[in-house]
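FAQ: What does the model actually see?

It sees only this:
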Amino acid sequence: MWPIELSKALQPSAQLDGFDISADQFPPAEWLPTNVTLFTADAFAPIPEDKLGRYDVVHLRMMVIAVKAQEDVETLTKNLVLLLKPGGYLQWSDCDPASLAAIPSRPDTPHPATSRLLERMLAVSAARGADWSWVSVLPDVFSRASLTVRISARLPIAPELRASWTDNQLLAFEEMSYIMMGPAGRGEVGVGYPKMLAEVAQETRTGAGLCIDMVVCVGRKEL
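And it is asked to produce this:
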């Protein structure tokens, strides 16, 4: 987790708070660094009074999983700004699913299963109402929330990291499939998905892979 990793680089006097909608994946408090506190909160709900204007930096990432529409990202950003002290920074790192692509290591590397899997997952996501258009316009979202944009960058997955990133993405696709296929193994994705996933895993061993752009936006709250 980001607060735990960051605590190793900062002075012990720096306080790091992390929150999530559920505590199910929190480690025991006794195992955390002494300057890290984790708590539950809904980022889309009103901010608790004791958290208003408290933080120098607020960091979040991978919210494509939770943000369903443009109005959601606007609400979320405004809430996060309320956490900041005057002059504080909001740092948002996310992937842009619209840029997800099947990329072979060589032009002649066959990857039909990888391409089919990508098309299937994007089609199912679209059918379930996923809208990721907000990712590419995060600087505009920041500006509407009265943040001064200091950094706006789009970073493709580096070639040397594509293999490991593809393995991680396949694990995520597998987890998603349990929900989409339903208890009978059918549903929206349909019979054959586990077989397709296995075929993709085999293709990755001969040079097939997935690539996506990471988007980073940093904004400063006015003094």
